[in-house]
UniProtKB/TrEMBL annotation, chains A, B:
UniProt-recorded name of the protein: Proline--tRNA ligase
Keyword ATP-binding: yes
Keywords carried by this UniProt record: Aminoacyl-tRNA synthetase, ATP-binding, Ligase, Nucleotide-binding, Protein biosynthesis
SUPFAM superfamilies given in the database record: Class II aaRS ABD-related (SSF52954), Class II aaRS and biotin synthetases (SSF55681)
GO cellular component, one term: cytosol
Biological process according to GO: prolyl-tRNA aminoacylation
Length: 410, 410
């Protein structure tokens, strides 16, 4: 993409109405735009990042047999009454249609997925199954001041699994746990992300959150350095020790919840009378699990974790472009490199803008944060190539023109 | 995908609460599920089709320099008041947040895109630009009885373009028209789809709809067979003739509006005071166009147009799978073919279900409507291969095992 054609441009001033770092810098760099508290437009650069996160999630859900669906956002009042959550679920947006029917905007989808799955999963032969969606969700948050970390409107991957018995759910739950860690590893968040024990509800002693350490986090977790797990605030009050090794020496830290998994048991299958026939022809209750992960919150988390005073430092796996190619008054030579990179399917943002000073181009490249900066100038061409610098590093070098493609091809 | 693993199964009964053919058959075949009037869940097969339509649209929007974004669905009351549409826009869903702020659910996005574009498009050098999104939209429809043709919640591609002058908009408008016809051609709808003259508003004599002929259509159009254009009901009342050739002999037909394009002029840029600096440093009003197209409505339209009494007949470009491979008690041989097809990136649904009779497998294949049916049975293997049949045809033949990949590779 040529930067001269890009819809957005960077913004120098810190947005006045935005207190969170992730939103401030994502707005300044042109990734998102604020519509209201907790409500953002995703702009071309931001949508590229979001789609890359979504595709990593899809990839890993496929490895655990997750089938993608897309459920309705308008959800009828009756299904929420069936589970007694119409008045009890925190932060439902409610509205009334022309037909005088009441709806909630989907904040989570147990109430939709259970009656849906009931239509198709009737026999033990049809279990287990697992379906997920990546969808815009709505929560009527009283405070939404953390940018992409807490939205009134945000993206969520929510998966639901259906099992014939507890052992099957337990096994699948462990597979999901492993898939989640593969996702965080691909996002560069693995080292900072802790499996965190949380309250489990009626059907399990614990559920699990995935918490990524950062000072911007709204949660507090308590880390056991022996086991490399943590517990959340709820659990620390009940058990003042690590649930794995009973170690009492836990370290408090601030963190962002980047995922959570939960054994629902029969809570929702009971409410919707979802049963299956076992191999003896007996009706049995279906056992469920649910597995959430927020792609837009993850985008905000990555920005909180990977940055310096000059801007964002995107992990290569979700960077809007792999390369930011800057032409310093050498558009002809730079354009040849640009076309060659495109021909080889290497993602590149080409700063071809003619009236922008070198200093401003460097500042933009640092703010936007693509992994590699290539600079084409009279000086670099004289030195036999293009200047190359990795985003977080200060080390520059010259790469010969004929080695560029090879360097960036997989 | 193995059909034994597929989340859905086909349904024999016609859903009682559904009067439209497209929804009846899409529900029976397992593409969608009804949540309420005009509200559907997209299931694995249906989401595959929807994504294919979306990707064709993305492809063609890229050829006319459209940049993809994703705007908020929660839109603040104030922006609708700015354009005087809070009380005047037909069918806005409205709701109140915890902060006592009022919102509309996005039914269209001029009120969001104009203040957004105003932040970035300030100089003649930054024009023209065109941005689009593919997004779930909400309309508080009083009647929603036409299945995917009229949703309370539905998918829309909405594009907005910004120009320095009318001539530039006029030229871009023609480019969009051509891109739309390329989309309909790729969907197999070209021959049935008419450029239809519609009322133009304050800034243009006409706007244009794209109307696809089918008895299921809720619109009436009046076709000039000389020019291959049509006019809609509004226009026939004003001008009782073809606006291109003045022919008065127009033929009435029922049709579905599968797209519409509109020259907005300065209506929204005036409302939001969006101006740009021209090359003399003078502030000028930005000229806008908007371009809608409904991927989920198109999915319903395709089903209304391409079907027979046995089921859906998907065009290859958007079929959920290219091939439906049926094993009649020959799972081992069929599985080898399945793996070979997958290895060659040929999309295949493999009916590997062991306790399902041949007749039911044939009926499912016809109902689901993949373009090619391959049957593996003792008989076909004895005849040296696999039975092949194109979905709409009754002609069957045997294709040798070693020619299958070649036949379906591009």
């Amino acid at each position: 993409m040529k930067q001269s054609q890009l819809f957005t441009k960077t913004i120098k001033e810190i947005p006045k109405d935005e207190t969170s770092f992730n939103a401030q810098i994502l707005i300044r760099a042109g990734f998102v735009d604020k519509v209201g508290a907790g409500i953002y437009n995703f702009l071309p650069l931001g949508l590229r990042v979001l789609n890359k996160i979504n595709n990593i999630v899809r990839d890993e859900m496929a490895t655990i047999s997750g089938q993608e669906v897309l459920m309705a956002a308008l959800t009828p009042k009756e299904v929420w009454q069936t589970t007694d959550r119409w008045d009890n679920f925190d932060a439902l947006f409610k509205l009334v249609g022309n037909d005088d029917k009441e709806y909630a905007l989907g904040a989570t989808h147990e109430e939709i997925v259970t009656p849906l799955a009931k239509k198709f999963l009737c026999s033990y032969k049809e279990l287990p199954k697992s379906i997920y969606q990546i969808q815009v969700k709505f929560r009527n948050e009283p405070r939404a001041k953390a940018g992409l970390l807490r939205g009134r409107e945000f993206f969520m991957k929510d998966m639901y699994s259906f099992h014939a018995n507890q052992a099957d759910l337990d096994q699948y739950y462990e597979e999901v746990k492993a898939a989640y860690f593969r996702i965080y590893a691909r996002l560069g968040l693995e080292d900072l992300t802790y499996l965190t024990y949380s309250s489990g509800g009626a059907f399990s002693q614990f559920s699990h959150e995935f918490q990524t350490l950062t000072e911007a986090g709204e949660d507090h977790i308590y880390i056991c350095s022996d086991c490399r797990v943590a517990v959340n605030r709820e659990i620390i009050k009940e058990h003042n020790f690590c649930p794995v090794c009973q170690n009492k020496n836990l370290t408090e830290a601030k963190a962002i919840e980047v995922g959570n998994i939960f054994k629902l048991g029969t809570k929702f299958s009971k409410a919707f009378d979802m049963k299956y026939m076992d191999d003896n022809g007996q009706a049995q209750e279906v056992i469920m699990g649910c597995y959430g992960l927020g792609p837009s919150r993850i985008m905000g988390t990555v920005v909180e974790v990977f940055n310096d005073q000059r801007g964002i430092i995107w992990p290569e796996s979700i960077a809007p472009f792999k390369i930011h190619l800057l032409s310093l008054k050498e558009n002809e030579a730079a354009n040849e490199i640009y076309l060659e990179l495109i021909k080889n399917n290497i993602e590149v943002l080409f700063d071809d803008r003619e009236e922008i000073a070198a200093g401003e181009k460097f500042a933009d490249a640092d703010l936007i944060g693509c992994p590699y900066r290539l600079v084409v100038s009279a000086k670099t061409l004289q030195a036999g190539g293009v200047e190359i610098k990795a985003r977080p590093s200060d080390q520059m070098g010259i790469i010969p023109l004929n080695q560029i493609i090879n360097k960036f091809s997989h």
